[in-house]
Each structure stands twice: as C-alpha cells, then as structure tokens.
Amino acid sequence: MPLQIAVIGAGPSGFYTAASLLRESEECRVDIIEALPTPYGLIRGGVAPDHQSTKGVSRVFAKTAQDRRVGYYGNVVVGRDITLDELRARYDAVVIAAGAPLDRPLGIPGSDAAGVYGSAAFVGWYNGHPDFRDLNPDLNTSAVAVIGNGNVAVDIARVLVKTPAEMADSDLAEHAAAAIHQAPIKDVYIIGRRGPVEAKFTNKELKEMGALKECVPVVDPAQLPTVIDGEMSDHERALREKNLATLRGFADRPAGNEHKRVHFVFCSKPVEVLGGGQVKGLRMVRMRVEAGRAFETGETFEIPCGMVVSAIGYCMPQLAGAPGDETSGVVANDDGRVSDGLYVVGWAKRGPSGVIGTNKKDGRTAARQILQDISESGRTGGQGLRSLLSKRKVVWVSFEHWLQIDAAEEAAAPPGAPRRKFSRIKDMLAVIGKPTAKLLNPAG
Ligand code: NAP
Prior knowledge:
It is a single chain. The protein has 444 residues and is of the alpha/beta class. The chain has 2 domains: 3-101 and 316-431, 3-Layer(aba) Sandwich (Rossmann fold); 102-314, FAD/NAD(P)-binding domain. It has 15 helices and 17 strands. The two termini are 28 Å apart. Bound molecules: NADP nicotinamide-adenine-dinucleotide phosphate. NADP nicotinamide-adenine-dinucleotide phosphate binds at residues 147-153, 155, 192-194, 198, 200, 202, 205, 269, 311-313, 352-355.
C-alpha cells in the first residue's frame, strides 16, 4: 500500500514538499488541500503583479500537480470543512504548509483608524485574493506611508506609483487597477525604523525604484553612512554595500520631470497614527542605530498622509490540533517534525522570511523525515477525504477544474496582460459549473 500524505496549502512550500516526496518515493500518494479554488499561494496572491518572471515557477508546480500520484482539493478549508484531526485519521502523514497569511499588528495608538491597512490585506486586494476583494481602500489622498523596509514595502510603493502603461503587462486585479490609477497619489514614504544598512530589501527590488517612468526616489544623503560598521560575513557586507550604492545613486540624482516621489525615510519609527478615526498623518520618533539596534532619540516629527500600509511582516492563525506560538502562530516543531505523523514546512515552520526558493530545503527535509519515520500505510487517503467532503456537501475544485479557471482568466486577459483574474470564489466556481452553496459549519 502506498503511503498516503496530505499537504495543507498549495503555495511554494506545499508544492516543493509534494515534489520532493514524488522524487524520493515512487509509491507515495500526495493530496494537496487548499483553502482557495486557485493554487500557488503567494505566487498568485503575494508576488507583485508586475513581477511576472517570478511567477513562472508555477509552471513547475503545475507539472507536480498533474503527476498521477497527486490529488488537488481546492476550496477546502482545514478548520472549517474538515479538521486537522480528521485529516490525520485519513493520512499516514500530514504536512502543514499553510504559510503566514495574517498581518502582524502595528499596535500603536490610532492603528485601528480608517485608512490603515496591513500588507497582507492590501497586497491581497491588488492581487485579486477573494478574502480581500472588498477591502476598498480609500486611495483619495496625495500621500501614503508604507511602514517597513522589506521587499513587501518596496512592492507596495512601486505598485502605487507605476503608470497604467508600466502595469500593462502585469496581472494587477482589475478593481485595484481602476482605483490605483485614478488616485491622486504623489508622495509615498517608505519608513524604516533602522538605517539603510539594516534595510531588508534586496538590491534588485530597490533598484527598480530608480527606473520608474513618472516617479523619482528621494533619499537624504545625510542618512547614508560612508562605511558599514560591525561584524558580518563578506557576503552580507557586499549585499549591504550594493544597497548603499544604489541609495547613493538615488540621493545624487538630479531632479527630473517626474511628478511622483518615493521618499526613503530611515531611522524613524511611527509611534502614533494621527487624525482620530481617519488617518491624517503619522507621528514619528527619530531613532539612533548602534550595532544594528535602534534606540529612540526623543526627537519627533510628523508625516502628513491619508493612508498607511503597514508592511512589517506576517503571522499565522492557530490551527486547532497544531501547537503554535501564540504571537507568531509558528507551529512548534523540531526541524519540521511536530508530532507523530504531523510535519510543518515554509513560513508556518520558520516564520515569514526568505524567498520562494528558500522553501525547497524545507520540502526536501519533510519528505525525507516522512519516508524515514513511516514505512507502512494503513490509511484511506484521498478515498476517505472525498467521502467525508461529499457527506458534508463541500464543493471541492480539482486541478483539472483549476486549469479551466486558468484558461478562462487567460482568455479574458486585456492586451499585453497575462490574465484577467477572478477575484470572487463564486465567479471561479461558475467557470467550472459548480454550485456555490457550502456548509460553512459542518456538524459532521
Ligand atoms: P521583512 O523583510 O522581514 O521586512 C519587515 C520590515 O518591517 C523590516 O524592515 C522590519 O524592521 C520592519 N518592522 C517590523 N516591525 C516593525 C514595527 N513594529 N515598526 C516599524 N517597522 C517594523 O518582511 P516582508 O517585507 O514582509 O517580506 C517577507 C519575506 O518575503 C522576506 O523574506 C522578503 O524578502 C520576501 N519577499 C521577497 C520578495 C522578492 O524577492 N521580490 C517580494 C516580497 C517579499 P526591522 O528590520 O528593524 O525588524
């Protein structure tokens, strides 16, 4: 009997795990269970819509999904349609690859005001994620503050200032394109509580900010150190030097005709969202950075803005049946092993860091552990899953169904764009002729 393995989540960490299992064992069966009808997780819902080459990896994942040993169950929410314990009863091993889909709370006074959004919600909105389809952010402002110095902050700033022509070959969701491109945004502030040396954006993403049609990066040269202090590897030093060189280039750049600006504001921490119930600005405190650590100086200033996006990292919800850290939601694990027959990979294992390829190693580790720990199968696998889902009238989406949705999105693409995304689950299900009625709280 082949081993029956369930992977929860069809993002990069889930697909890399499935691919490793198939490579390491001719005889295993892998079922991928995904909350959305659509596969690929952050490739579809997180990677910036104008970074199409990054999304190319989904073609590799599609090959994995079409292997005869793999089943895909989209539109099935673990914790709603089926519990983790029910899955564990049907599979020899269950791998949690559910990512970190929630925003880390900003947690400063005023951060619950209208006009403050987390990056998971905001990026999900412009990427057509159904959970955030109705976010309707109020973009009627000339200035936006993006908090955080990671790649997500840079992605958000870039998407807000690129012209419609610059986004024409992207898959920016239609509703978001309409809102962003008629917004009067002129100034975007990217705010880092530490300095340019500590900033986490990668150089490729930072450089893009200097190659925009109507937008110029603004950097105060006084914020750029001449040397990089502290102990670090040569590799790390080289990466930081590169970012500094790019930022110096921005600082030296003569003013052009661009009418939008992205301001890099370093060593500054937001301490309050101003404006009462509606954002009017941020109160900031200037920071002093010593040996990589930031300390408040006591000096304050304000940044007037009508919208705030907090891009300060992600966390995950607790999954009943999986022991998790209360704050981050990261599943308690020993290099991926959680308990008998239960494993974790990706951001749910390590926290929200690293690029897509970083998940490969997790997938390989989990596959090897499973094949080492479990040699005999006594579970029903997909057969048991299908029977429970049918009993509960859960409408699941197969990979063939997804390919139909995919083809419909591609067929509807505006000129030059790769696809026109469906952003509502009912529209996705309509393509494949599935009813939309679901039992939201199955009793069993
Ligand atoms: P990130 O790289 O960890 O950056 C988070 C930023 O938020 C850091 O600058 C951090 O500052 C700041 N921050 C955290 N808490 C804060 C607070 N309370 N107040 C102010 N600032 C705060 O996270 P991310 O940008 O969300 O990206 C997640 C991962 O996805 C990263 O590994 C990233 O490289 C990857 N990613 C890659 C790409 C790409 O390759 N193109 C695109 C998007 C995302 P400190 O450093 O001081 O903590």
